[in-house]
From TrEMBL:
Name under which the protein is recorded: Uncharacterized protein
Ranges annotated as spanning the membrane: 6-26, 47-66, 72-92, 124-152, 158-177, 189-208, 228-245, 276-297, 317-342, 363-384, 396-416, 428-449, 461-481
One Gene Ontology CC term in the entry: plasma membrane
Reactions this protein catalyses: L-proline(in) + Na(+)(in) = L-proline(out) + Na(+)(out)
């Protein structure tokens, strides 16, 4: 461990302390369920914008995704960013124009129940949300174990599990202090670190000198190792996921519901588009330059090794900045996932009424216990399966987006009919919709295992549109069994 490693670790420690201090500023004298999960609906446009950008891309996860999926370098990475921005734009415009911020619509499940009075469907949607965010939290803590394990792997064979738990405990601690308000309060700091680290990656790509000389072949970045059919399927998958994801992801709705108005949401989005573009597109430019110089990386560790071994400014300045940014970026998604899991358990059709009746001390205790159970359960899974987690990384990412994608037809229908009177379905209609969701869910899970078995992500990519088609037909058929009166 040299001076640059020590500098990076000190920086990460200071950053973690700042997270806790910022979270403390969000602490309120009166603790409540809506305050913990919805920040008392007090979030400003500036806070929304910072949170939207910070949470839109956990830098370490996205970078690792790019690095280990080199077949899809080039224009497809730009396509990812552009389509994600398009999806967010459509979502925010809808929120502003349709005034969907309502007291009784806190989650995606609540949104469905607000238009279709089906508890069975709503609870299945909640289950999908919970499993999705459990996987998201697992992925973030896993990447955290890689980053911290990069420093401590030579000290103990248990570095992975220890790092996994330490990152989880930090997130639990500062989220517990102020709930969603603490998450939103710290996102501004996270965003600044992410911006600095992205610029540092760009500077490294410019300063890096290839052993083969200064020859720069930019065209390499736009050549694909994958067959054009696979690239086309991947781009189609990215389009449908990124356009639908803001509407189906609980954290998007939670962030919106915490704002004072739809207009504030729109202002926050519009004022942070430049920062979003830097976070998403500057890494693409940086890796275009590196690939043009003949540099590819198999994993995050080899990328950090390349920076550290370059010496000079790259080792002493850029390396610590990148590590601090990567490490801190984990929190931007891990804390969002943790608060979303708590919110899922407190929506209309789960335990909202029971939790609201609890005294403040008991409510705090329950939330803390739930958080620890979640974290320790994920740590137990990681300790057993850590040797094979790398093989599951990409399939799990596809799985998360696939699970959220299959409920898109239901959520879009709910939004379309949000102003109409609630619909009540006969049991037959409810079960048709429920079965279609469950079959689609099974297809997504099966494709995940198949992708790991055959090391081919095509299964995962195709399972999403197939699942969405099934739930669409299930919805169309189920709606034919309406009751004459609403419940």
């Amino acid at each position: 461990m040299n001076i640059s490693d020590i500098t990076a670790l000190i920086g990460l420690s200071i950053s973690s302390l700042i997270f806790i201090l910022l979270a403390s500023r969000a602490k309120t004298s009166k603790f409540s369920l809506i305050g913990y999960t919805m920040a008392d609906k007090s979030i400003s446009s500036k806070q929304y914008g910072s949170s939207f950008v910070a949470a839109s891309s956990s830098l370490a996860t996205v970078m690792l995704f790019f690095l280990t999926n080199a077949k899809f370098y080039g224009l497809t990475l730009l396509w990812c960013g552009l389509t994600y921005l398009l999806g967010q734009y459509l979502f925010v415009r809808y929120v502003r124009d349709k005034d969907v911020i309502k007291e009784d619509v806190r989650t995606v499940s609540d949104l469905w129940f607000y238009t279709i009075r089906s508890k069975v469907n709503a609870r299945i949607i909640t289950a999908l949300t919970i499993t999705s965010f459990l996987i998201i939290l697992f992925i973030e803590l896993y990447v955290g174990s890689i980053i911290f394990g990069y420093f401590f792997s030579s000290f103990t064979p248990y570095y992975g599990v220890i790092s996994f738990i330490v990152v989880g405990l930090i997130v639990i601690y500062y989220v517990r202090i102020g709930g969603l308000k603490a998450v939103m309060q710290t996102d501004g700091w996270q965003l600044m670190l992410m911006l600095v680290s992205v610029i540092a990656v760009l500077l490294f790509s410019i300063l890096f000198q290839s052993e083969n000389g200064p020859n720069f072949e930019f065209s390499k970045f736009f050549s694909f190792d994958a067959e054009w059919q696979n690239t086309l399927v991947f781009c189609f998958w990215i389009l449908i996921i990124n356009v639908s994801l803001p509407f189906t992801q609980l954290s998007s709705w939670q962030r919106v519901a915490a704002c004072t108005s739809g207009e504030e949401v729109w202002k926050g989005f519009r004022s942070h588009i430049l920062k979003f573009s830097i976070i998403w597109f500057v890494p693409v430019i940086a890796f275009a330059i590196l690939s043009g110089k003949g540099m590819y990386f198999g994993d995050l560790g080899s990328f950090l090794d390349a920076i550290k071994s370059s010496g000079g400014i790259s080792e002493l300045v850029l390396y610590p900045l990148i590590v601090i940014g990567f490490g801190s970026a984990l929190f931007s998604t891990a804390d969002t996932a943790l608060i979303a899991l708590t919110t899922s358990l407190a929506d209309t059709n789960t335990f909202k009424k029971s939790l609201e009746k609890l005294e403040v001390k008991k409510l705090k205790l329950y939330i803390t216990i739930i958080s620890f159970i979640i974290m320790l359960s994920l740590a137990a899974v990681f300790s057993v399966a850590q040797a094979n987690v790398g093989e599951w990384f990409l399939p799990l990412i596809y799985n998360v987006f696939g699970q959220l994608g299959i409920i898109a037809p239901l959520i879009i229908y709910s939004l379309w009919h949000l102003k109409d009177d609630p619909i009540s379905l006969k049991p037959t209609g409810n079960w048709i919709i429920s079965i279609s969701i469950l079959i689609a869910w099974f297809i997504i899970v099966y494709a995940t295992f198949k992708a790991v078995e055959e090391s081919n992500q095509l299964w995962s990519q195709l399972s999403t549109p197939i699942g969405m088609t099934l739930t669409t037909f299930g919805l169309i058929i189920g709606l034919k069994f309406k009751n004459l009166k609403t419940q």
